[in-house]
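Q: What does the assembled structure look like for these inputs?
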Amino acid sequence: MEADRAQLLNQARRYLEDLRLFEGGEFIAPVLQQEEQGGDPAPALPSARDQAGELEAFRLQICECTRCPLGQTRQRFVFGDGDPGAGILFVGEGPGEEEDRQGLPFVGAAGQLLTKIIEAMKMQRSQVYICNAVKCRPPGNRTPAPEELAACAPYLERQIEIIQPRIICALGRTAAQALLQINSPLGALRGRLHQYRGIPVVVTYHPAALLRHAEWKRQTWEDVKWLRREYDGMEL
Ligand code: URA
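A:
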């Protein structure tokens, strides 16, 4: 009886904590301080290359793209945003309505949650780079078709080549499958350190999925803490 009561109380406490994940400093900050003891992220090393210039030149080269039908229906081409020399690259699936309107990745509701996740990792959004597997909005926010992902793949590849992140976070199944070129379900992809051309890749839930399934936030938190630990442990 006592044990059941304790178990129920424990479940309720976990549930309340899950609801509060990524929603403000009061829960996240103390956890990070206790578990991570991490200071500020290592500053990006000054690069001999002009990564910002290279990225901008590449954007200009591809921003009128019509390699797939999404080029006909988009409002704005959503190249990516953030620090061109970032150590951490987040890759999502494709722009949604708000991203299509603004021409920037992750600026809608899922983007606000991604910003909170990044801040919970004790980083600023401006310190990472964020882009998508496809650069144009699939109508109605449907999953990009394999041909659309294939048409856009060289763009993501070139972005990664320019940015040279130290670690990549794939947000959701589509981004992970596009990057890793495998068909496994998300459950099989999470929890393993993958490689993209020698760069470690951590796979986690897409923030839009977290908006529908708050109960997945805790696993996401474990994934991004792990990513941050891997990143902190890397040789500069
Ligand atoms: N979802 C994505 O995958 N990317 C965005 O930029 C916005 C929402």
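Residues 2-37 form one domain.
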